[in-house]
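Input sequence (236 aa), recorded before submission:
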Amino acid sequence: MGKSLLINYLMPDKMLDKLAYGFDNIIRVEANAKLPLPVASHPDMQVLVIGDTVITVNELYAKSAELRQACEGKEVLFTEADLKDKYPSDVLLNACLVEKKLIARKDSLDMSVIHACQKHRVEIVNVKQGYAKCSTLVLGDKAIISADRTIVAASKMCGIDALLVSSGHIILDGYNYGFIGGASFYNADNNTVYFFGDIKYHPNCVKIRSFIEKYKVNIVCTEDCPLYDYGGAVVI
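Predicted structure, token format:
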């Protein structure tokens, strides 16, 4: 079975068309009533993949036949706790995997994530930021970009190259601003970072481009507008 890409159902088609390279199936994640409305359809709040293990919430899996099909042949774990609309109960799965390291606020993770990390021998790198995946653009197994100082510092201590950028300058309706991890997606198949909008509107656009190009990663900006946080994208 080919790869599937989970995206926010609110993402415009013209934006999606530019980031769908190499995927056999595009799965639109609809709103989860247990989450705050502005992030209720964010993939990075409802699905986490570690190796061949897909960790998700029961209500999304039960509702989406496409997700169930995409998970065939993989281990599927459901969160042991329920998602809720208050922090930290909304970030049970909000963690970013870099090679064999999972960057996350450990005491906010669901136990299913802990079990998956143990199975796949993934080290959990503890940070203060519960919205670790939202906050972090992961460049494959190479490096990360984040506006969170604790994530950047912890990454560097683990030998992961990290670029600190200014916070803000990313739109997320209902909040003061969104995050760079939620406003982007890395596709390993074509070694490309896709931005949901255009990084030219970010004040750190020059150093962001330079950092990404240092790792010979391609850049695609999906639309001529400021970056928008759609909750990233998840590959299964």
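Checked by second reader. Helices lie at 13-16, 58-63, 65-70, 111-119, 149-157, 205-214.
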